[in-house]
Each structure stands twice: as structure tokens, then as C-alpha cells.
Amino acid sequence: MVMGLAACDPSEFYSELGSDVDNGTFGNPTMNNELVMTGKIDAQVALGQRFANEVPTTITFAFNSSELTQETRAVLHQQANWIRQFPEVRFRVYGHTDLVGSNAYNKALGLRRAKAVVAYLASEGISTSRLEAVVSYGKTRPVIQTPGPEQRNRRTVTEVSGFVENNAMVINGKYAAIIMRNYLELGVRVHPENAQVQTQVDPSK
């Protein structure tokens, strides 16, 4: 009887156990924490990278508009959920426009867009004291270099800007606890099956 082994890659038998699972990022949180704690990478930079990796940081706008759509509100809702996890961190919103119109008009339009984002994040319960600055680049930093209308240029970008009370050194010392807070909380949550059992137990007994 011929067994179906011919299709197998022989190298799989000689590869390290678990190598097919690791996509190259295993151990990155530990390495990142070590770099922060030793001063080789700034906590603000590390948190900024994590923010950009875990949620969309950019939304776009209709031509000559600062109105938020249902789609952009959904993105900002994701941002707010992430920001809410880190009360020690401050954020800055940058407003941009496309290249249509004057510098003065576009600067004001970019500012209105950034303020619209800040207002929405505030409506989601984020303190405006943590949205430390609203900066408009107007039309000076396009994603696509074109003189015509371009939606990808009509955008706001939310970024980590620092720490509450500018006390970055204290935050550096607690960086591991900050970024792991949401994971550690998972360890104390009651398992759904246990919760069901608890609700069935008569507290008087």
C-alpha cells in the first residue's frame, strides 16, 4: 500500500519544534519591555508603535468637509477604546487637507477636522486634558502629491504625544505594568462556566 507521504516536505521533519507556529513576533513584548527599561527605546515611542499597530490611526473626509461619517465614527470608537486603557498617555490629532485651495483656508479646514475628532473622542469619555494639542498641517503634508482633489490627503491622524503631567520617567519605570494591564486583568476574571455555577448556588447555604 502506498502512503500519502510524498506530498510532505522532508525539511519539516528536521525543523525546530514550534517553528511552524512562530510568525517571527514571538517574544517581541518581552524584548520591547527590556528596551524600554534599559533606556534603549522611549516608552512614548513604544506605545505609539503599539497604538499604530493595534488600531487604525487615520480617518478621511469628504471634499471641503469636517463632518464625521458613520464609518469614521466606527474607527474613532476603536481609537477611544484603546486610549481608555492607558489613562497615563496623552494624544495629539493632526488635521490635513488635499492641495485644492489656499494655504490659509486649508489650514483652518485641517484644524476643524482635527477638532471634530477631539470632540468625538471626548464624547466617548476621553478627557480633553489628555488630548493635549490639536495641530493642523493644512495641505503641507500630502499622502499623494497631486494638485487635484484626493481623499487620502483629506485626513486626520491620531498619535501618542506624551504622558500625563509630562512625567515620562515615572511611566518608563512602570511601562511593563501599563502595557500588560489588560492582559493581567484577564487572569482574574471568572471563567464563564464557573460564573454559571456560582449563580446557581444558593447564597443562604
UniProtKB/TrEMBL annotation:
Tree of life domain: Bacteria
InterPro entries for the chain: Bact_OuterMem_StrucFunc, OMP_bac, OmpA-like, OmpA-like_sf
Main location (coarse class): membrane
SUPFAM superfamilies (alphabetical): OmpA-like
Keywords: Cell outer membrane, Membrane
Record keyword Membrane present: yes
Annotated compartments: Cell outer membrane
GO CC terms, sorted: cell outer membrane
CDD domains tied to this protein: OmpA_C-like
Domain OmpA-like as annotated: residue spans: 48-164
Name of a matching Pfam family: OmpA
Gene3D superfamilies registered for this protein in UniProt: OmpA-like domain
PANTHER family listed in its UniProt record: LIPOPROTEIN YIAD-RELATED, STATOR ELEMENT OF FLAGELLAR MOTOR COMPLEX
Protein's recorded name: OmpA family protein
Native source species: Fuscibacter oryzae
